[in-house]
Design brief:
The protein is mainly α. The protein contains 28 helices and no strands. 64% of the residues lie in helices and 0% in strands. Helix 10 packs across helix 12, helix 23 runs antiparallel to helix 24 and helix 24 runs parallel beside helix 26. This is HEAT repeat domain-containing protein.
């Protein structure tokens, strides 16, 4: 029996809400067939309570925007959510999590409202007059807590005149003090889309605005140059011991600075054969960060003793030692590392330090051959049984099942596809099913044409059986949709051309 998802915020996969929260293609198909009030309620819940496990890598905005358009849903709920009193109380990170999805959906709706083939950024100022999503974005950019996100959406969709009008309101957020100027410089530097800032810096109607932006940007460049001159990091002439001490010093600071990776890179430029005894001693020693930096350097050099050192470090009770040791092993590409992975994968369950068997199975999934299929399948089943369908450890194992064409893995892959709350993992599972499940083309591949992830839609466009009338119609719609990603459209046009 498999462990189910324990995320209480995600509804069961057999419900309309659960399907929409996961971003599955069946969610759109069921919503369009359900009573409109039920579909609107489920969509509203998703938009106001972002269901993504990691909003920085998972996509939902285009998926929800398309359904919002198909259902002809009103914007009232989004407007109330964005301009609720609690928005003013949010910090930057909380504001991104609270309103980022809604703002991204509004961005796509603004593009659709511009009409097929039109792009608001190149339109006349009057083109936004009947574009309600664009007006909401403009309003939120002037008063909302997550204004940077709204501004990035507008930067690729609004016209120059509309963006220029926002300049005074945005710059008034920053007081004309040294601290305010520093915050303004950071906001301009970190903006995902620089277009609005460039327009404001060149706006002849507001010369004081242009002068201030130029001043703070020059000051920011000067400060960055000074920081580079005063860097506390390794310098030319540092010895191996000094680099190890620098890594350990960061670990002992509060808050901790994890310098193991940069220290290992510095060691690659400094360490020579004569330094091997010192590095081996550090890899066995009690200083956590110095130990991890030495382990990583030795693993990158395929040192003959490093595999034993990694096995010993993986048993360390401190995760600050065991996790970097497993990461160092995962980076190895030697035949000796692959042979040791086979040895660890074959060991009886619970006979190895925690995580070592998983690291071995991951290496076999990524680099192993046909003879390793049984070990990868066993690890896949064990991980789902013990950790459920949302475990991060499943990602390489799912990829490995597809790479090795383990056909008997199809049932467990179908279970992961249905139950996982991660749309990224579901997309990887779809790719693995395309290589292992003969029924994929006429089954899940059709649903995947409506999936929230572009990579999943691309897999579907390559494999979906065109005997189903819905497939050809959907392929044509994706080919004509200006919001669709280029990779998906290339795959779609390749299928339509056959």
């Amino acid at each position: 029996m498999f462990v189910d998802s324990v995320d209480s915020d995600i509804a069961p996969s057999g419900t309309l809400l659960g399907l929409l929260q996961r971003g599955r293609g069946d969610g759109t198909l069921h919503a369009l067939a359900a009573p409109r009030s039920e579909a609107l309620a489920a969509l509203r819940h998703c938009l106001l309570h972002d269901p993504r496990r990691d909003w920085q890598v998972e996509h939902r905005s285009l998926y929800y925007a398309r359904l919002h358009r198909d259902l002809d849903a009103p914007l009232d709920d989004l407007e109330r959510h964005l301009f609720a009193p609690e928005d003013a109380l949010c910090g930057p990170e909380e504001a991104e999590a609270r309103t980022g999805l809604a703002l991204s959906v509004l961005g796509h709706l603004a593009s659709y409202a511009a009409g097929p083939g039109e792009h608001p950024a190149g339109a006349e100022p009057s083109a936004a007059a009947d574009n309600a999503p664009l007006r909401l974005l403009r309003r939120y950019a002037t008063v909302g807590a997550n204004w940077q996100w709204a501004l990035d959406e507008l930067a690729v969709r609004d016209d120059d005149a509309g963006l220029r009008l926002l300049g005074p309101a945005v710059l008034s957020r920053f007081p004309q003090t040294p601290e305010g100027d520093a915050e303004l410089a950071a906001a301009a530097r970190d903006a995902f889309e620089p277009r609005p800032w460039r327009l404001w810096a060149e706006d002849p109607a507001h010369p004081e605005q242009a002068e201030r932006l130029l001043r703070v940007q020059e000051r920011g460049s000067f400060d960055r140059w000074q920081r580079q001159l005063r860097t506390p990091g390794p310098r030319p002439g540092w010895s191996v011991q000094e680099i190890l001490d620098w890594a350990q010093d960061g670990y002992e600071q509060h808050p901790r600075l994890h310098r193991e990776a940069p220290a290992a890179r510095c060691l690659s430029a400094v360490a020579g054969p004569e330094d091997r005894p010192l590095l081996l001693a550090a890899a066995r020693g009690p200083r956590e960060a110095a130990r991890c930096a030495a382990l990583r350097h030795l693993a990158d050099r395929d040192d003959p003793d490093v595999l034993d050192l990694i096995e010993h470090a993986a048993a360390d009770p401190s995760p600050d030692v065991s996790r970097p040791a497993l990461t160092a092993f995962a980076r190895m590409r030697s035949a000796a590392a692959l042979a040791r992975a086979r040895q660890w994968a074959a060991a009886p369950e619970n006979s190895l330090p925690e995580g070592l068997a998983s690291a071995a199975a991951e290496m076999l999934a990524c680099r192993g051959g046909a003879s390793d299929a049984d070990a990868v399948l066993a690890a896949l089943r064990r991980t789902v049984r013990l950790e459920g369908p949302d475990s991060p450890a499943l990602w390489p194992l799912v990829d490995g099942a597809g790479r090795l064409s383990i056909h008997c893995a199809a049932p467990i892959l179908r279970h992961i596809y249905r139950e996982t709350a991660s749309s990224q993992l579901r997309g990887r599972t779809a790719g693995a099913l395309s290589a292992t499940d003969p029924s994929f083309a006429a089954g899940f591949a059709i649903e995947c044409l409506w999936d929230c992830e572009e990579s999943t839609r691309e897999v579907a466009a390559q494999h979906a059986a065109t005997g189903d009338d819905r497939v050809v119609e959907r392929l044509r719609r994706l080919a004509a949709d200006p919001a669709e990603e280029a990779g998906v459209q290339s795959a779609v046009r390749g299928r339509l051309a056959r």
